[in-house]
Amino acid sequence: MQEMIINYLILILFITCANGYFLMETSITYSNNRYATLNGSCVNNYIVTIVSDSPDAPFDCPNGVTVIIDNNGQSVKSNAYGSQAYCSFDLTATLSINESLIQFNVNGELLIGVINYYCENLPYPIQLLEPPPSFHLTQSGNQMEFYTAVLNLNLTKLIDFFNLVQYAYPIGYNCMIQALTYTKVEVKCKFESTMSSHIPFWVEISDPLGRVTKFDIPSFVVPNNNSFDFTNTAYFDADYNYPLKQYYTFIKAAGYPIALFYQYTDQYDPEEYIVPQIVSGSPNNFTIMFPIQFKNIDQMVNIPTYYLRPTILELITAPYFSTVLGDQLGITSMSITNDDKAWVITGTFTNYDECQVELKYGKISVSSTEPYPYGISSKSGETAQYKFTTMPPQYLQNLYAATQPDLILINTAVSGTTDATVPELQFLNYIAISDYTYLLTVGASDVLGSGIFSIYVNPVTLTAAHLLNGNGTFQDGKFEIYVDTRDPDYIFTLSKSEPVRIIDFAGNEAIYKYTVYGLPVPQPPPYFTFDNYYTQTEVVKVMEISYTVNNIDLSIVGCQNTIFIKMSGTTKDFPVIVVFESLPGLTEKSHRANWNEKFQMHTLDFYIPPMVFTDNYVPIVLYYKNTVHYSSEFTDAWQLKIYSLNADHMPPQIVDMKSSPSVTTAQGGVISWTFKISDPGTGFSNGTIKVASTLDPYVPYVFTISPLTNQDIYEESYTVSLIISPSCASQTYYIYSIELMDNGFHTSTFHYKNRQLPSNAFSPLLNLIGNLTVLDTLSINVNCQIAYTDVTPPTISQFSVNLTNPIDVTSPFDIDRYVTVSFTVADTGSEVMISHSLPYCYLHAGVFDILKFPANAKTEQGVTVDFECYIQIPYGYGAPGDSLLISVFGYTDTNYNVGGMSPIDLRVGFNPVIPIEYFTVETPYIEKVRLDGTSLTIVGRRFSKPSTVLVGTQSYQQSSIGATVIILNNITPIVTATNVTIQSSPSNSNTVVIKPNSGPQPTIIPSPTPSSTNTQCPGTPSCGGSSNGQCINGKCQCVKPWFGLDCLSQNIIVPAPTINTTNPDIDNNFNTTLPDGESITLKSLISIVSLKELKPDGTIVIEHPFTQWVYTNTTSLQSNSNIQEFTYKTNITNNNVLTGVTITLQFFKQPETIIFANEKLEMLASTIKYRMDISKYQFSSALNTLQLVMSVALESESPNESTCSVQESGDIDNENFSEFVKLQVDTHSLYGRFIKRGIIDNRIQQISNTIYTNNSTSINTMSQTYIGINIPNYKSSATLDPDFSVLIDTTPASDKSNSICTKSEDSSSYKSKLSKSQLAGIIIGSIGFASVVVISVIYYIYKTKQSKALVEKMGNKLKNFG
């Protein structure tokens, strides 16, 4: 790489006057690492801070500083703060010069330095480092919109598409091109309505010199000349007056690219290019859907669907439908009242529904979505009087309130004292505590103003509650917060230049991009301080991505998977954030991949549901601190690949709906709805149905439904019922909402009148939404033949707060911040309701803060009812105001008349004011405690140095970090719930209970301890002595290069096997030397015999021998040059179902670590590994299992009469993770390691192995046996992953018990003696668990040549086996 790190400023300063100045460069490191932006020159921007020793020497950059570079004056852009100033200037550097003299004239004082830089043009032509890429379809959520390709270019600096270069592409395409790193450029495209024929695709990059480099990429637009079948179906809302209407177009097509369909309409507001969503099928035979929601137009519309043919765009016509809208939120009156504490906005709404309210007081803003019953002071059906309470300080400022999107409630000035001063940033300090935690301290002042309301410092917000006691006031103080970036709220944004925003209580805002010292606002310690592109190219690089299961068949079952992430520049304590952009159930949030000590990588477990649409490039985004990596830049081997024969993204549908008759008698009755729910793909999982009424439209009855064990998940009827009490009020009950989810995490949603309907909603009533007759069944009338005339809401007749003194909201004790509100609700015409609908107390603080607390009925239902609200005031709530206010809403009578009172209403006759104060005690306050193993982090306020912390009965002395956090390390392990308290005078802090599982617990790996005399290890000395291994619980733990059960064997290097192109058997010769110096020839044979279906008692149901294979050399597909790979495929048929068997044979030239079934496996040099994949098998019974049979053999024709052979088998480790089969002849062995795990139905499962010693044919020169790998009954697939390596033994076979040392055709003569050491041999490594594959591993050892007779005998034995 060329010298790309020299774009920084080195200043050699000479201070020449009494008023000293010094300069410091504060540019972002590597931010000038760009190619030339002009003809032969670079324009670099530098930032410096000029600091004066004397505060009496004021200056500012524009007027007091001149910058001269190589005798050329430079313009200066700047900001000035006190005695320090931030200055930025541009240097135009030519290609022929890499050093310039710089002079700063600061108020007549000359400071001289030198700038080093490296300026170069873009290389020409720009070259691809890899073959031209291909476009692949990118799924986002459920949509198919863009095709993506990534160019890997020969660049060493950022190619700046915003300022440096221009790019072009053919007309008819719509593309976005961006740099991902220095070398990788992403091209993301779709086609436009101007596309009229198949246009080849290319990208041209033009540099500032006008030189053009063109890259041809095979186009994703390949229109089909042939005719193809499609059907077009439209579903849309009936002609009801809804505030929003839905329109769905379904296209079913075969043999045509998905993304070449689209809808575009200027009838939609705004005009929109509508991309399809996947519904079902596969890439070659699919159903897609176009959803549209109409909100702002009233007319007849037609939405055609376009698709691209070879020469023109054709369209599929669709029926017209009416978008006439109605029943929208309206206002009939509006007013505002205020007193010395609050301002209350009052409005009368028609068609009222919960809506978002935008509130602004100067620069203080909030979006409020307080649910019902907040604000409702009275209502009649869906007409409601709404009161919104605010507590703006008494300063002259504009108060604004509006519902979304544009219904303005109020826009008026709040009268009061004028505060025209903006708050000031005094200082900002970070203390890095760990790689993921830090302490932030901010000094801020508003001395002549209203005081500090909030301080935003990316990514946290400090409020008045974070003021440090004893460190100033709300007008001029020190604020502090402890940040643990493992908390979900602190997933970092990617911005590198977030300014500090300080707002005072009068709504004035100050924005600071630079500190008072002239430095750019620093980023939190976890951030990298380098330029982002440099960091992503040179520091945080993705080194490896892998999965427990890849190339996943989701046709039948889902997949429990793990992603393994290896990145440079990361630490163990900081997570990698993983975002899955298309997988159902995972797209709604980000996920944390934490460090896994076992694998030395970050790992994340995740689940993919069944029947997800095929995708060879599942889009994934990785965030680490302030860097980002997209999966589009990864190699093909790192891509997550999934496929389904017939995907199902269609959420559950209601195919039939019935309702019970109306209730028409005074005795009441039962009303019900029955829904037939169909989901023929993944099956219905669960749902929620809510029922409301015309008198009580905002407190629905909630019903949850899910299939019982005896119900059909694919189609079943579900009934929800509601009891109607006698003497009921006449009204209409209706379905308020329906939400249904299937086992693929696809959700359908219905809302009454389409209110509050999500933009991506998929209706569960597609077949019914246009059928007025069926939709009428959503409503049931109830008439108990009684006329009620009471339309007056109940009232509050008594109200009190159990309070004698002001509340110190900074008290550490919850009891000091606890308030009980008591009130009585009375009604003259009906009883007050105490079930279904209860009132709430609301606690108000400045400016727009609201907390909600439920009321509890203290008396029985009647014309008067006593209620109480129990209010726990949060620490610091309301600061720096002098009071809190209470309102009460939601009290209801049995005729569903609703009442509510704002604080201003309650102050007429009652006192809803809670006076508050601050810092009346100096006692520490513990906010939260986090336990990480034996480390305890205590976060709170007013901590001292040093502090005494009581953890249960243990006492610890520890100084706090700042006044906010105390960290105790190496504490006594906590095994039960334990109290944590800080000792203080005159009283201790509050107590917080910590539980053993309250934080992530580290995996405790016990120190190895020698085995007791009851668990002896093999060998004399055991395990070959301390230099070879150690005996742990009866098992030898070997030290490299030693292997085997007794650590007396070493791996030997053998040539790559001779590949058989007709079957996956290994039949290979290689030469080696015995300990006595004699050269011999060894022969190895690995053979896959058959697949058996077994009954539970072991009886063979049917055996499927493997006869014909299709061979492919797949070495070129391997990204790892250390591996040679060969693939064999065959199939068998059982019960008329074809089962595919794939054997992937890999030869490892050098040692390598792999992961299979979430276990690390060491592959020795010359290891042969088999991966076996078996597709769906049609079992004859759900109780049956499969067994994969392998054959293993060794032979030697040595003339030496002392030649011996021996077989051994058993468990390898204490965890019962794997077992071995060892075949040894003299001092060479075949050692087979069989993992007792497999990947069955896309998840890791336990399996077992059977070693058939009774069926073996062994003599002194040959050892042979059969192995059966037992696979449980499965639905979709099974995968195994065994490997084989050659070892040489220190202990010959003749020294082992049960060895055969006499030639015998029938293997009847055995030499019996005690073993002096355990096996050493050839390692047949991990036969991965969970596969329906049998690997026969047979190694033949020959001193001279192959015995033809023996081969024939083995062939006969294989035929007769079983």
Beta-sheet strand percentage? over 45%
**Radius of gyration from CA coordinates:** 38 Å
- For the record, give the distance between the C-alpha atoms at the N and C termini, rounded to a whole number: 63 Å
Low-confidence runs:
1-18, 998-1013, 1304-1362
Any overview of this molecule?
Residues 647-785 form the DUF7035 domain. Strands 79, 80, 84, 85, 86, 89, 91, 92, 93, 94, 95, 98 and 99 form a 13-stranded antiparallel beta sheet that branches. Strands 61, 62, 63, 64, 65, 66, 67, 68 and 69 form a nine-stranded mixed beta sheet that branches. Strands 43-45-48-47-46-49-50 form a seven-stranded antiparallel beta sheet. Helices cover 2% and strands 47% of the residues. It contains five helices and 100 strands. The model is unreliable at 1-18, 998-1013 and 1304-1362 (pLDDT under 50). The longest helix has 13 residues, at 1348-1360. The chain starts with 8 loop residues before the first strand and ends with a helix. With 1362 residues, the chain is mainly β.
Descriptive labels:
mainly beta; 5 helices; 1362 residues; disordered C terminus
List the helices and strands and how they pair.
Layout: E1 9-10, E2 21-25, E3 41-52, H1 61-64, E4 65-69, E5 72-74, E6 76-81, E7 84-94, E8 99-106, E9 109-116, E10 136-140, E11 143-152, E12 166-168, E13 173-179, E14 184-191, E15 201-206, E16 212-217, E17 230-236, E18 245-254, E19 261-265, E20 272-274, E21 277-282, E22 285-294, E23 300-301, E24 305-308, E25 313-316, E26 321-322, E27 330-338, E28 343-350, E29 357-361, E30 364-368, E31 376-380, E32 383-390, E33 397-403, E34 407-414, E35 424-432, E36 437-445, E37 452-457, E38 460-463, E39 467-472, E40 476-484, E41 500-504, E42 509-512, H2 532-539, E43 542-547, E44 552-553, E45 559-567, E46 576-580, E47 591-596, E48 601-608, E49 620-624, E50 627-630, E51 642-643, E52 647-648, E53 653-659, E54 669-678, E55 684-693, E56 701-705, E57 715-724, E58 731-742, E59 747-751, H3 772-775, E60 779-782, E61 795-801, E62 807-808, E63 818-826, E64 840-845, E65 849-857, E66 864-872, E67 883-892, E68 898-901, H4 903-906, E69 913-917, E70 925-932, E71 935-941, E72 947-951, E73 954-958, E74 965-968, E75 978-983, E76 992-994, ...
Parallel strand pairs: 44-51, 62-69
Antiparallel strand pairs: 1-9, 2-3, 3-7, 4-5, 4-8, 6-7, 8-9, 10-11, 11-14, 12-15, 13-14, 15-16, 17-18, 18-22, 19-20, 19-24, 21-22, 21-52, 23-26, 24-25, 27-28, 28-32, 29-30, 29-33, 31-32, 33-34, 35-36, 36-40, 37-38, 37-41, 39-40, 41-42, 43-45, 45-48, 46-47, 46-49, 47-48, 49-50, 53-54, 54-57, ...
